[in-house]
């Protein structure tokens, strides 16, 4: 008999090559979870993540699940994992789930935040988590452009080269908040292509610098050509903030 656990993972992605396990010489978040669970369960454990974050991207909401052949109380498992994980990765939530729960295929929406600091001197407390742009930006033009990304569209112009992969995605929310010297973009949708959020934000940065006009965005979508859009914003400003699921049965199969 196995138990299916759901965990919410917070991590500073600066020192990691993203979520997905790679060859042993590359540190990844998934590899660290697999390592500590092998110590706890005394065998290799498959860990499924809600998202494949890129190198340098952070999380305050990535969800994962795994099946353990041993029965451990969720709070005890959380303590055990955190005692073995590096200090820049933490299990913030842990609970037993129905055996059918899958962190990847059960997700109905994901919310990303991208932070930009616009002041002249950036505090070391935000250095690893926000892009520093100490020059004037046309904030009104950037805000006007966000509406063009909302809806169901072909995001070929805002994704990496992934031959054969369908590029149509639906964005439910794209907002821009400015507070003092910080800009925060909130982007929510069911699924995202590789580099998609960073390419959209990079294009907005180029709009803020006057290199692209807000009214050019529909034509960039229509072109289906990555070269027509703006830069790829650095990974450091991006955080996976939340993953949502439809409520499902509990660990005993009840609603």
Task: Note the main attributes of this structure.
255 residues, alpha+beta, Alpha-Beta Plaits, 2 domains, 10-stranded mixed sheet
Query: How would you name the CATH homologous superfamily of the largest domain?
Result: Pseudouridine synthase I, catalytic domain, C-terminal subdomain
Please give the number of β-strands.
Answer: 10
Distance between the termini: 21 Å
The structure class reads: alpha+beta
CATH class of the largest domain: Alpha Beta
What is the overall silhouette? globular
CATH architecture of the largest domain, by name, is 2-Layer Sandwich
CATH fold node name of the largest domain: Alpha-Beta Plaits
Q: Residue share in helices?
A: 10-25%
Radius of gyration over C-alpha positions, nearest whole angstrom: 20 Å
What are the segments in which pLDDT stays under 50 over at least 5 consecutive residues? none
User: Mean pLDDT, nearest integer?
Assistant: 94
Strand content: 25-35%
3D structure, described in words:
The chain is an alpha+beta fold. The protein contains five helices and ten strands. The chain is 20% helix and 30% strand. Strands 1, 2, 3, 4, 5, 6, 7, 8, 9 and 10 form a ten-stranded mixed sheet that branches. The two termini are 21 Å apart.
């Amino acid at each position: 008999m196995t138990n299916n656990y759901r965990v919410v993972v917070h991590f500073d992605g600066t020192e990691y090559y993203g979520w997905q396990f790679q060859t042993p010489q590359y540190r990844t978040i998934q590899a660290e979870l697999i390592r500590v669970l092998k110590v706890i369960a005394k065998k290799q454990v498959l860990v499924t993540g809600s998202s494949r974050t890129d190198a340098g991207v952070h999380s305050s909401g990535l969800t994962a699940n795994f099946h353990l052949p041993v029965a451990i109380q969720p709070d005890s498992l959380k303590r055990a994992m955190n005692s073995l994980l590096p200090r820049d990765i933490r299990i913030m939530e842990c609970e037993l789930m129905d055996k059918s729960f899958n962190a990847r295929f059960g997700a109905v929406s994901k919310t990303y935040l991208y932070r930009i600091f616009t002041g002249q001197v950036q505090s070391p407390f935000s250095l690893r988590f926000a892009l520093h742009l100490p020059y004037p930006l046309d904030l009104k033009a950037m805000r006007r452009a966000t509406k063009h990304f909302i809806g169901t569209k072909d995001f070929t112009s805002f994704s990496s080269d992934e031959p054969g992969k369908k590029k149509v995605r639906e964005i439910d929310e794209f907002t821009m908040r400015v507070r003092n010297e910080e800009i925060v973009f909130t982007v929510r949708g069911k699924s995202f292509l590789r580099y998609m959020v960073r390419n959209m934000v990079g294009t907005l940065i180029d709009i803020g610098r006057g290199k692209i006009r807000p009214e050019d965005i529909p034509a960039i979508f229509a072109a289906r050509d990555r070269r027509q859009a703006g830069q790829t914003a650095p990974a450091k400003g991006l955080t996976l903030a939340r993953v949502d699921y439809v409520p499902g049965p509990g660990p005993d199969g009840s609603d």
